[in-house]
Amino acid sequence: MASSSSSQSWEYDVFLSFRGTDTRNTFVDHLYSILVQQGIYTYKDDQTLPRGETIGPSLLKAIEESHIAVIVFSENYADSSWCLQELAHIMKCKDERGQVVMPIFYHIDPSELRKQKGKYGEALAKHDSENKNVESWKKALVDAGNLSGYVADGPETIFIKVIVDTISNRLCAPISSDNEDLVAIKTHLQALKSKMEMESDDVVMVGIWGVGGAGKTTLASALYDEISTKFDSSCFIKDVRPSDMPHPKPSSRASGSSACSGTPPRLPRIELGIVDGLGWFRWSYGRINKAWFAKIAKGNFIFSLVLKLKTEEVAGDVGRLIKSRFRCKKVLMVLDDVDHLDN
């Protein structure tokens, strides 16, 4: 009986199984790059196994330690006994360890796996003639072909985005056991999410306040884990101190103000609630104020995280960088342990 995947301890988020000659430098390369950009820890084996050899224990271990196995079935996938050994072990891990299996049918029909006709049938017949363990491979192909998967269709960039978004959502674990210890964490989390204005095009700041030990960081971490994948970029900065991070002063000006420097245009501070010693408030900005945001961004450091650049690559006019790189991005920034709103 398979154990729940959420209860397992996984070394890798994703294991990629693919036929190198078909997709290594094209589809799989693009998919792997986006997965890495999204912070998804992915195992991609780039070694070439000598003909006739079996896959080694390190590769089998990597399969076993991966939360999700993404199998890219391409035209010549079944030609490789290495690929078929990977597949058989993946399907075993699905049954015994609760591993999530996501088949991708890259320019082939899923029925080719189930019926084992055409190139897949020819490849299996060849393996059979070489006295290889074909029966277990045949079963693995049929089982994988019966899974709900993804058939390549339309623009590849959109297809890859759909796959990566699905993986991100699967990896978004529910509230951890540590967070369950916080009183009413789920109630807090739902209340806080409702104030985030996720569909709004405005810039929104939400604050969590309360006495020390009330669970502010725990709540912020739970919120970040749950919603960060819905943003183009995100970062969580711990242990922020007033001496390092200037903060905006509350203002009574409406968000329609046309101020271009100093404190950004905003709504008056809105008290949104207090439950079990925790409270939250929200500011909503009609647009980004570059000078203020440059201060909040703590110079190059946060930009390097959000934009996934090396710190030394973030140089020059930070305000111009904000305007050019953030104008079409949906970004989540969490600043933890902020002691004062006034600075």
UniProtKB/TrEMBL annotation:
Pfam families, per database record: NB-ARC, TIR
UniProt-annotated stretches for the region Disordered: 243-263
Annotated GO biological process: defense response; signal transduction
All residue ranges annotated as the TIR domain in the record: 10-171
Taxonomic superkingdom: Eukaryota
Keyword terms of this UniProt record: NAD
SMART domains: TIR (SM00255)
Protein name per UniProt: TIR domain-containing protein
Species: Centaurea solstitialis (yellow star-thistle)
